[in-house]
Amino acid sequence: MDKFLNNPWAVKVVALLFAFLLYFAVHSAQAPTPKKPGESFFPTSTTDEATLTDIPVKSFYDDENYVVTGVPQTVNVTIKGPTGTVKKVRQVKDFEIYADMQNLKTGRHKVELKARNVADGLTLTINPSVTTVTIEEKTTKEFPVEVDFYNKNKMKDGYTPELPIINPKNVSVTGSKAVIDRIQNIKATINLEGVDQTVEKEAKLTVYDKDGNVLPVEVSPSVVKITVPVTSPSKKIPVKVDRKGSLPDGISISSLDISPGEVTVYGPQNVLDSLEFVEADEIDLSKIKDDTELEAGIKVPDGAKKVSPEKVKIKVKVDKEEEKKLKNVSIKTAGLNDSRDLEFLDPKSGKLDITAKGSTAAIEKLQPSDVELYVNVADLDDGEHNVKLEVNGPQNMTWSLPRQSIRVKISSQTTQNEKNNGQDEEEENHSEKDSQPS
Length: 438
Description:
The protein is of the alpha+beta class. It has helices at about 1-5, 10-30, 85-90, 175-180, 270-275, 360-365, 415-435; strands at about 45-60, 65-70, 75-80, 95-100, 105-110, 115, 125, 130-150, 160, 165, 170-175, 185-190, 200-205, 205-210, 220, 225-230, 230, 235-245, 250-260, 260-265, 280-285, 290-295, 305-310, 310-335, 340-345, 350-360, 370-375, 385-390, 390, 400, 405-410. The protein has 7 helices and 31 strands. The longest helix has 23 residues, at about 415-435. The chain is elongated, with a radius of gyration of 52 Å.
C-alpha cells in the first residue's frame, strides 16, 4: 500500500477520482432535473428557434444599365441558435438578406438569396431561398403628363376648370423596354371639391398601362407643378369715375374718356345681377391744369372675386370755361306716388333759372331739354318740407343754382278729399239755414 501511494501517478489518479466524487455530490444536493433517456449527463447550453417575417431583400446589380424584376421585396427567415442570441436578433434584426446579380447578364436567371452579418452560433433558413429574376437593359423615354379631375361636380356653383398648365409638360420614364412599351399614359390627379378659384399644387405622377394597371418604372421628375385656372360667372360692367376737388378757375373738362369703358367682373351670379357699374379710384380735379392722362385702379365690388382688367386709363381734356344761363327750368318731382299731391310753396311757379358752366363746345351744344332739375320726396310724410334740389345734365359740366332747396307741401289725396267733403257739408248747412223762413 505504501508503495502504491509513493507512486506519483497513483496519487494523481486518486485526486482525480476525489474531484469527480465532489462534483457529483454538490450537483446531487441541488436536485437536478431528471435526464431523458439517452441525454448526456453533463449540462449543455440551451438553444432556441424563431421565424421572422417580412424581412426586406436588397438587390445588387448594375442599376445604371439594367432593370431587374422577380426579386421578392420581403422573405421569411427562420433563425436557430443560443437562446440569448436568438432573442437579441429577433429584436434588432441586424442581419441582411440579399440577391447578388452583379455578374449576371440580360436574360432569366435563378438566383440564390443569401444572408450576411449573421451573429456567431446562429443559423438562418430563408424562405424562399431561390428566386427567378429577369434582367433587361434599361430604356428611357419621354411622355406627356395628363391631368385627371375628380369631384368636378362638387365645385361651387357656376365655377368650371379650364385647361391645366403643367410644369414640366413632359417627363422621362426609365424601365425595361418591355414595360416602357406598355405605357398608355402618365397622370396626375386634382381634387376640385369646393373649388372657387385657381388651383396651384404639386402632384405625384402615376404610370398606367392600357388596362389601368400601375407600372413599376422610374419617373423623373416624379412630382410636377399644376395650375388649374378656374372661371366663374362673369359680367361686363361699365366703369364709373368719381371726382374730388375742383378744376382751377377758368377751365372746364371738355371730355373724359375711360379705356376700357367696361371691365369684366367675376363672382357669384347673385352679386353680378345686382351690379350696374363698378367704381374706379377717384381723380383729383385740383391737380389737373391741362390735358392729362391718368391710370386708376378698379375697386372690386363687395361679394365679387375679381375684376379684369384691374386698372383703366383715363384721358382728361380741358378747355376754356364758358357759362350759359337757362331760364325757367321746370322742377320735377321724384318719388311721388299717385295717391299723393305736391304743391310748390317757394317758388310757387315750380321753376328756377340755373347757370351751366363747361367747355365752349359743351356750352354751345347745351339745350334746356338736356337738363333736369328735380327734388326727391320719396321719404317725406304729409306736410310742408324744405327739399334739396338736384340737377341731371350732360357730363363734365357744373351747375350754379340760385338756391340749394325749395319749399313744398305734400298731402295725401284721401285727406284732401275728406277736407273737401267737410267744406261741402258746411256750405250745405249754411244754405239750409238761409232757406228757412224767419
